[in-house]
Amino acid sequence: MVDANGRSVGRSMRILVTGGAGFVGSHLCERLLADGHEVIALDDFSTGSPANVAHLMRSSRFYLVEHDVTTPFDYEIDRIYNLASPASPARYQEDPVRTTVTNVMGTLHALECAERHGARLLQASTSEVYGDPEVHPQPEGYFGRVNPVGARACYDEGKRCAESLVMDFHRQGRASGRIARIFNTYGPRMAIDDGRVVSNFIVQALRGEEITVYGSGSQTRSFCYVDDLVEGCVRLMEHPVAVGPVNLGNPAEVTVLELAQEVLRLTGSASRLAFRPLPEDDPKQRRPVIETARRVLGFEPRVALRQGLYATIQSFRAALAAAGEGERRETAMAS
Ligand code: NAD
Ligand code: UDP
Fold first, then answer.
1. Which residue range or ranges hold the NAD-dependent epimerase/dehydratase domain (predicted)?
2. Which of 76, 103, 281, 333 has a beta carbon 3.0–4.6 Å from 158's, enabling a disulfide?
């Protein structure tokens, strides 16, 4: 167990991580095991993979269970991190009804499990609850601007409903909840075919393919390295009182075009930029106000974009090589 400063203290707990074989989930499981806890990762492997946690299987305190959270589950646990949900716009729009059901029913089942065992739950919410925001940067008090009937609504409204479930269980005294509003997070173990911007750009650059910039690339995001996010989640979970939704992310804001240029620089790729249509309801700007996390949790992102991208590129190089794909550098040399 860790205190609000992230130091190991006290007893070891049994912790359930739904979506534990996903990108963020696998890093979280790793961290919780390192803190001395027993960890159960529950996953249907729809966007995650057992390979993400293969290195954790050596631990006698780690269990991986295949389960779809849209059906109920029950484990005697002290904590639940509820992460089960596709997170990439491309993936969550493939089967939008399922995305809504996963977020609403999955969160309900996680809360019911927490209630039965007196456990505390942390909900992995998202900056998408702010939609395409008119208020910039986004503080937790902003109610957002979500198109409720658009292509992203399955995720945005699913996550908003999940937040309301957490708050209502809390207000009714049924389960103690925490809500982490996670802003764009990246790092090793994002799926190669995930479709999100960081993984797309890195994979395209390493393969010598065109870098697909949607729209003009002037839209902004603020990218947080996964280790910083995991630290924030653990601090939020272990904070003694529920403090309402808390933004977790890195406020350093860049345009998508700047991100593409940084990836090209760091990979040494000569891939060309290819401009593609902007997807429906794509937020024009996004940057978290993290004063609540700073003040209440002592949270501070440590990893700068360049440093995090470098580590992520290294991991993608290794993943592509393991998949039998040599890096295509001939494009770079030919130009
Ligand atoms: P991810 O797709 O890598 O991980 C999600 C995991 O949930 C996968 O392992 C997937 O197989 C699993 N899953 C999906 N539906 C399930 C179901 N019905 N039953 C059981 N498991 C299921 O994505 P991620 O980036 O690791 O995201 C983790 C969580 O954090 C998600 O809830 C996401 O909405 C949230 N989040 C992530 C980001 C980010 O930038 N990474 C930003 C905001 C919010
Ligand atoms: N994007 C892009 N090229 C890609 C993938 C994404 O230009 O290959 C853009 C996308 O339109 C958005 C931003 O990058 O403006 C972040 O997209 P992502 O899918 O990573 O997550 P979002 O923040 O939109 O949920």
1. 15-248
2. 103
Please confirm, yes or no, whether 225 is among the known catalytic residues.
no
Domain parsing of the chain, residue ranges: 14-186+224-250+287-302
Residue 4: the pLDDT is 55
Return d(Cα 335, Cα 47) in angstroms, integer.
Answer: 36
Asked if residue 184 has its Cβ within 6 Å of ligand 2, the reply is yes
Ligand 2: centre distance to CA 197 (Å): 5
156, 128 contact by CB (below 8 A): yes
Nearest to 222 by CA among 282, 140, 288: 288
- The architecture in CATH of the region 14-186+224-250+287-302 reads 3-Layer(aba) Sandwich (3.40)
Cα separation, 35 vs 49, in Å, equals: 23
H-type alpha helices, the chain: 23-34, 89-92, 96-117, 153-171, 197-207, 226-238, 256-267, 291-292, 305-322, 330-334
For residues 268 and 274, the answer to whether their CB atoms sit within 8 Å is no
| Residue 113 CB-half CA count within 13 A | 26
Can you tell me the distance from the alpha carbon of 175 to that of 65, in angstroms, rounded to the nearest whole number? 23
Catalytic pick among 81, 92, 130, 155: 155
Task: Quote the pTM value.
Answer: 0.96
Asked if 29 and 46 count as a contact pair (C-beta separation under 8 A), the reply is no
214 within ligand 2 shell (Cβ under 6 A): yes
